[in-house]
Amino acid sequence: MEKSSYAPVPLRVVMGIIFSVAGYTKLVGIAGTIEYFAKLGFPLPAVTGWFITLLELGGGIALILGLFVRYLGLLYTIEFIVASFWVKLPMQGYAAARLDLMLLAGAAVLYFLGAGRWSIDSIWLEKDKQAKSG
Q1: Separation of first and last alpha carbons in the chain
Q2: What is the pLDDT of residues 58-99, one digit of tens each?
Q3: Does pTM top 0.85 for this prediction?
């Protein structure tokens, strides 16, 4: 087993915690979240607000467990391209965009590397390999 297969583990766990907390905060104040998305000019702010809230809360928990990590990495990459380059950088500047840019980079890493060891994804992948080999 390669040591590099453990590399994504701390990244996905920390990102999972960050996203879970952010999603929970959005959920508790969902009316304000929707209002904020409307103020930013997002189409269908109620749908967008709920989608991002559930993506961050549910996806954050899934990241911690190592479940659907590549798919979530892609979704978070898209989310943070928008958050960084449409919202934070033009409206608030670099200082406000730093965390978003780091989350964008982390999401891209998870998309390319996957969950790593100690994950549900790796357990499923191992079972799939065993089933195919016989």
Answers
A1: 21
A2: 999 999 999 999 999 999 999 999 999 999 999 999 999 999
A3: yes
- The encoded tokens of residue 59 equal 């996806």
In the numeric block, which tokens belong to residue 104?
């964008």
The pLDDT tens digits for 9-40 are 999 999 999 999 999 999 999 999 999 999 99
Quick one: tokens of 106? 């982390």
Q: Residues 83-100, buried b or exposed e (16+ Cβ, 10 A)?
A: bbeebbeeeeeeeebeeb
For residues 14 and 31, give the distance between their C-alpha atoms in angstroms, rounded to a whole number.
27
**61 contacts 12 by C-beta, under 8 angstroms:** no
H runs (alpha helix) in the chain: 8-28, 30-39, 45-65, 69-82, 89-92, 94-113, 120-133
Q: In Å, what is the CA distance from 41 to each residue of 46, 86, 130? A: 12, 11, 49
